[in-house]
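Model it.
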Amino acid sequence: MQKTYVLDTNVLIQAPYALQSFGDNHIVLPIAVLEELDILKTSDGERGANARQVIRYLESLRITGSLIEGVPLPNGGTLRLEVNCINVKLPDGFPEYKSDNRILKICQGLKEKLTPVILVTKDILVRIKAQMMGIEAEDFTTEQAPISGKQYTGRCEAYVSEKKFEGFKKKNISPDDLYLTDEEGQKHPVELVPNQFVIIRADQSGNKTQLGRFNGKKVVPLTYKKKKPYGITPRNVGQYFLQEALMTDADNAPLVIVKGMAGTAKTFYALAAGLNSIMELETPEYRKILICRPNVQFDDDIGFLPGDETEKIAPLLRPAIDNLELLVDQNEKERFADERGLSGKVEELFDRGIISAQALNYIRGRSVTKTYLIIDEAQNLTPKQAKGIITRAGVGTKIILLGDPNQIDHPLLDERTNGLSYAAEKMKGSPLCYQITLSADECERSALALDAIKRM
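Modeled.
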């Protein structure tokens, strides 16, 4: 049965292809949406670019017929503009001049005409107001990842026979030899995806474990388990897996997606591996480390701020600089004895061009080659922005997306619709992507940080 969807502007701004995502159903665009697109079309950055993309698509539809009467969409549905419903009464306390309420007015008018409608909006408060009016409302779900507890973690545990366990270092393990057990002790096969990390347990002595990675055919031992990138030693299983992903060259692992709570050393380890690949090897693997961190709006205009680009975005990069201070001087007792000298060591990395920091606008429309690219706080990216970053990877570039899907600052994103979770779901099983989710128990910031994560 065909449905009628009324779209909010924020859906089109975040996903400009949304008009092509509703199958053979009917789409209604309120006139208020056109007015908001008109305002946004001259904006700089992603919002303006997306608004212009939607407007161009609407123009391609306009020349095929009347948008007021409705035009067919390529996927079998229809699109029309709604300019009526002017006399529909809103609940008391809903100002009619607000665009959100004008959109709700359209929904209410269609409902009164006995046309069941579904409002699609990224705005949670608008969905709440819709519910108050008895209007069905939902988020734009095309880009949604699974709920947090069911998202891909890039790791699993499995049992294997004692004999195969003992011979793992010399002979790889077939996934058919691995199994899990249920509460009744029944064995079940393990389904692995390429590049998934595995904690292997001997079935006769469960306390004995080894670490491996599924290469698409066999579970193989970790290649970099004994390495110490930039002098750093892994402290837990998650960091061993993380180290493997980060140290694997860009030809085999050009994309690494890391999810984890604060304090799990995501940024710290990414920087350590990057510095190691440039400064500790006879032939550097990359030209430089490029660090980007989105602000809430991804690409707000920073032109009015004083200084050059690096100085303008420095406040956003303070977490990375804090981690660099730990890396350039690993003597915990003496590290902060000379604050000026410590700061100078970090500044030298930037002055020599080993590390650079740039706004995410830098990535749009460019091909980034032979670069170790760190995107910190990637949970504040939209799916389109995440795609835009990943598809900018040139030859020899390694992209690392870091973030915590539970710590989102973007007003229109959540743990299921953010770019980090979206990329993790779409790239699951790619032979070119390594993923790892670090657990709360693997927090290494401090005893208090670990305790707070568990309690709060």
